Amino acid sequence: MVMKRRPGPGDTAKPKRSAYDKALGLLARREHSRKELKTKLRQGGYEGEETTAAIDRLGDQHYQDDDRFAEVLLRSRIAQGYGPVRLRVELKSHGLADARIRELLDETEVDWDASAATQLRRRYGSAGTSDPAERARRAQFLLRRGFAAATVRSVTHADVDEAADDIP
Questions:
Q1: How far apart are CA 103 and CA 72, in angstroms?
Q2: In the chain, which residues have pLDDT < 70?
Q3: How far apart are CA 160 and CA 149, in angstroms?
Q4: pTM for the predicted model, two decimal places
Q5: How far apart are CA 97 and CA 51, in angstroms?
Q6: CA-to-CA distance for 30 and 39, rounded, in angstroms?
Q7: pLDDT digit string (tens) for 20-62?
């Protein structure tokens, strides 16, 4: 059994990293949004002014860029088979502006109908169904993945409520 010893008065403690160093380390692993970095730094015990200065400095040096973060996130989530409604919500949660989210989604050249059909085939196989309950189950699957009601309706031929598209 290994016992940890308490630091004594002669021991030198490891100095706390600066907010800049901590944020740079986070960005070295993957892209982060400004909002995400700010949250992680505050959870790490860094003060607001130091956090803001560190994130601004990283932005000035082009180490942190919300547009680049959003593009990487979009590519990743589209490849995972998520729809535009889910993408919009996720980008909004990272603090991106609605206008910028609309621009980014418009710039993506994705055939959402084909993507939804691919997800259906992946999940349920290529066999269609005439059972209304099964069609509804498949439609709910696509709605949970973030596809628009019109897309879901065209792919599954199921009755889908338009309220599913009203997510802010």
A1: 15
A2: 1-14, 158-168
A3: 6
A4: 0.77
A5: 21
A6: 16
A7: 999 999 999 999 999 999 999 999 898 889 999 999 999 999 9
d(CA 155, CA 114): 9
What does the buried/exposed string (b/e) look like for 45-77 if buried means 16 or more CB atoms within 10 Å of the residue's CB? ebeeeebeebbeebeeeebbbbeebbeebbeeb
Residue 124, pLDDT score = 86
Two tokens, residue 4: 């940890």
Query: What pLDDT, on the 0 to 100 scale, is given for residue 117?
Result: 92
Please name the residue that has the structure tokens 């790490």. 44
Tokens of 59: 């932005």
Distance (Å, whole) CA 24 – CA 71: 20
Tell me how crowded residue 156 is: count the other CB atoms within 10 A of its CB. 26
How many residues make up the chain in this entry? 168
Angle between helices 149-156 and 132-144 (to 10 degrees): 140
